[in-house]
Every structure is written in structure tokens, then in C-alpha cells.
Amino acid sequence: MTSPSRERYPAAVLRVDTLTPAAYEAALDRLAEILVDAVDGGASVTFMPGLTSAEARAFFAGLVPAVRAGRAVVLGAFLDDVLVGTVQLHPAWQPNQPHRADVAKLLVHRAARRRGVGRALMERLEGVARGLGRTLLTFDTVPGSDAERLYLRLGYVRAGVIPDYALLPSGAPGAAAFFYKAL
């Protein structure tokens, strides 16, 4: 697959799909590229600067058993058939939480941002969650980030902030804002 560029997508067609296990495995290299791009762009998404393609691929490859077993649902956003974004839904496994799911790794390649990709991924994710009988979504993000602004526009509620939760890409401790949405 080729990498997206802003020039290539002036009026691109956006499509969001649930990745089948086979499609997920076929997309591991591209998913790794998107994660490395996010980290290189300063996103605080678990990994620190210097993340290699091999490390990013290993992260996504580690999810293959969960995707195959239905314990994780991965969505892919495509602009003109090029994978440019992804998000994960992790239905809670706990017997007392059959209604809840966690959202993880909303990632959009920098060349594809500001085109509604993140919004489309989250809206589709909500539909998938509803289809699985999940009525409560939870996750965390960096306070003041573009992601937080998107989540607030989509009706997510900020439940609170924990200071010094994780290291920011700079290496300094940073806060995490926790969100939820009742579907």
C-alpha cells in the first residue's frame, strides 16, 4: 500500500470497515506505519519516540489471537482504498460488566487528518458496540489534545483526570483524562 498524502486526497472517498481476522493480519505492516507516524508526530499512545516499525508490528501482531477470538474488534478507515486510520474496541471480559467496552488506539495517519476520519471511526465503533450489546464505552486520553476535543464533540463525558499517569513523548509525566459515553 502507498502512504497517503494531502495532495492525493482532495476529495477522497472515506470508508470505515470492521477488519476481519484475515484483513487485520494482512494490514499489520500498514497498521504499524500508522502507529509509528502517530508516535513520530508526538501522540501519546503508549509508545515513546524511537518506536520502530518492527516494534509497532509486534504490538499489532500480539492482538491477532484476541481479534481471531472476538475479544477485540479492530476498525480500519480507508481513503481511496488506502488504510489511513484505526481504532479498537475491547469488550469487557468481566462477568459483572457485560455492558461495557474499552476504546483503544484511535490513530489517524497525519497525512489524512482533518478529513473526518477520527469521527467516522468513532461513530462506526459506537454502532459496533451497540451491535454487541455494549451500552457503556470507556477510555483515557491526554487532556487538551486534539483527541480530547474530538471526544467532547462526540458527546463523551470527561469523568476525571489523574495527574502523572503516564510519560508524555517528551519523557515528562503527563495527566490522563478518563472518558465515558452511555450509548
Overall description:
The chain has helices spanning 21-26, 28-40, 53-61, 64-69, 117-131, 146-153; strands at 14-18, 73-79, 82-91, 100-108, 136-141, 157-167, 173-182. With 183 residues, the chain is of the alpha+beta class. The protein has a domain at 14-139: Gcn5-related N-acetyltransferase (GNAT) (Aminopeptidase, 3-Layer(aba) Sandwich), CATH 3.40.630.30. A seven-stranded mixed β-sheet has the order 1-2-3-4-5-7-6. Helix 2 packs across helix 3 (53-61). The longest helix has 15 residues, at 117-131. The model has no long low-confidence stretch (mean pLDDT 94).
What name is given to the CATH topology of the domain at 14-139?
Answer: Aminopeptidase
Average residue-wise pLDDT: 94
- N-to-C order of helices and strands: EHHHHEEEHEHEE
Tell how many strands the DSSP assignment holds: 7
Structural class: alpha+beta
Secondary-structure arrangement, i.e. CATH architecture of the domain at 14-139 = 3-Layer(aba) Sandwich
Distance between the termini: 35 Å
**Which strand order do you get reading across the main beta sheet?**
1-2-3-4-5-7-6
Biggest β-sheet, characterized? Answer: 7 strands, mixed
Number of helices: 6
Strand content is 25-35%
Radius of gyration: 16 Å
Q: Low-confidence runs (pLDDT<50, min 5 residues)?
A: none
Helix content: 25-40%
Summarize this structure as a short list of keywords or feature phrases.
alpha+beta; Aminopeptidase; 7-stranded mixed β-sheet; 7 strands; globular
